[in-house]
Write a structure and sequence with these properties.
Blueprint: E1 4-8, E2 12-18, E3 24-30, E4 35-40, E5 49-54, H1 56-81, E6 86-91, H2 108-112, E7 115-121, E8 124-127, E9 140-145, H3 147-158
Antiparallel strand pairs: 1-2, 2-3, 3-4, 4-5, 6-9, 7-8, 7-9
Organism: Streptomyces tirandamycinicus
Domain RCK C-terminal: 73-159
Pfam families: KhtT_N, TrkA_C
Length: 159
């Protein structure tokens, strides 16, 4: 899907695209952290009608709702397309050595070659977690790598 990005000086960015039915839409990401979803007919985005406005927190929630299933689907598709690549899940246990510690301390990618691409924490999905992300008991780590690499991450995380 083609997304046209337009800088709005002093306002933020506008992202424009058309859906399958040909409806023109845009999302304005304001410098304040708020968002507006708009639709418009024809080719003039200046005639857009605001459908709804979201705070940054509301936009994050909507992105999680829309994105979480898509993340899982994309990883599943990727592992089908690349021989030897697998996706797995590893739970952080309360008694494990990394509950309450930053992800980077695991050195999982360096030690195993497998990558932790998301953390599922209850209803929340944290895609592409950084090394400072504190792991919590009950977190489920989404891991991409070889089967051996995923098993090695499990051994590291669960101790």
């Amino acid at each position: 899907m083609d997304v046209n990005e337009v800088l709005l000086p002093g306002v933020g960015m506008r992202y424009e695209f058309a859906n399958r039915e040909g409806d023109r839409m845009c999302v304005v990401a304001r410098r304040t952290g708020d968002f507006e979803l708009m639709v418009y007919e024809g080719a003039d985005p200046d005639e857009a009608r605001v459908v709804f406005r979201l705070t940054g927190e509301e936009a994050d929630t909507l992105a999680e709702i829309l994105g979480a299933p898509r993340i899982a689907e994309r990883f599943a598709d990727l592992t089908k397309e690349v021989p030897g690549l697998s996706a797995g899940q590893v739970e952080v246990r309360a008694a494990g050595p990394f509950a309450g510690r930053p992800l980077g301390e695991t050195r999982a990618r360096t030690r195993t070659g497998a990558s932790i691409v998301a953390v599922v924490r209850g209803e929340e999905v944290i895609p592409s977690p950084g090394p400072a992300e504190l792991l919590q008991a009950g977190d489920v780590l989404v891991v991409i790598g070889t089967r051996d690499g995923i098993s090695a991450v499990e051994q590291i995380i669960q101790g």
